[in-house]
Amino acid sequence: MKTKKKGFDKVTFMFVAPAFIFFTLFLIVPTVSSVYYSFTSWDGISPNIKWVGLANYKEIFTSARFGNALKNTLILTFFISIFENLIALGLALLVDNVRVGKKFFRSAFYIPVLISGIVSGFIWKIMYNYNFGSINSILTSIGLGEYRQDWLGNTKLTLIMIGVVLVWKGAGYYMIIYLASLQSVSPELLEAAQIDGASPWQRFKSITLPLISGAFTINFTLSLINGLKVFDQINVMTDGGPGFTSETLVYLLYKVGFNEGRQGFGTAVGMMLLFLIIILNTIQQKFLRSREVQM
Q: Phi, psi at residue 50, to the nearest 5°?
């Protein structure tokens, strides 16, 4: 039996066209143009765009500033990925097991997620202030004044302090994902293990963790991407300083592209960041997916 070949469906096209146009204009075109601009010398304003070939990429691989930004990005991303997920999992376990006030704790832990990156940066910048910040004030009030620090001015602590802000802000979001996954674990499996004499830690390690491995894949992927593209808090709290201590790849892109008028080089940095995200995410996905358990 021959099937009639469908012709051009105008109605379907009318529904698909707006999304296709939007996708093309705001994703395909910028991506293609970015690839082109990364091979040019351009200030972002002048109509004169000079083709320089691989000069921008050559400078990237020989630039100490790029190497420093890459190192800072990887350190911050690693810090965020580990501690955001550890704290988020801990909060999810707490909320899942608490009997009174479950909705309250779930909402309270999620509140920092609702605060914008700029606002959270300002809040913590004030808290970190050496002279009137609440952290140093608390240390002084409990007799630990000798531990007072210029938390953002100390080059050994700057990245960690920014990481603390990001973990505080993001952990509640990942907590919700872990919590949803925990609530999908079959109580019968846990009860059976308990009857067989398994301790709470054994039940958690051998049953709960494998069954929520899908949530680990999702959360580590999100925290990896968010760590690689962090911008708001650095802009507000340190402006990439002291010196270039907290300058990441995204902030380097911003500084050279918009402050220094080197849009071509900044775009090349953006392309390198894109490749880095793809490579790290692929490695992470392969590692985590192999450990997922189908429920």
A: -100, 125
**Dist. CA 276–CA 229, nearest whole Å:** 11
Q: Which residue has the higher pLDDT, 122 or 14?
A: 122
Q: What Rg value do the Cα atoms of the chain yield, rounded?
A: 24
- What is the token pair recorded at 81? 């990925």
Query: How buried is 154 (Cβ within 10 angstroms: 0-12 exposed, 13-18 middle, 19+ buried)?
Result: middle
Structure confidence by residue, pLDDT tens digits, 148-176: 989 999 889 999 999 999 999 999 999 99
Phi/psi at 98 (5° precision)? -70, 140
Q: Which residues contact 215 (CB under 8 A, 6 or more apart)?
A: 177, 178, 180, 181
pLDDT at 289 over 80: no
pLDDT tens per residue, range 61-74 = 998 999 999 999 99
pLDDT, residue 294, reads 54
Task: Supply the pLDDT for residue 200.
Answer: 84
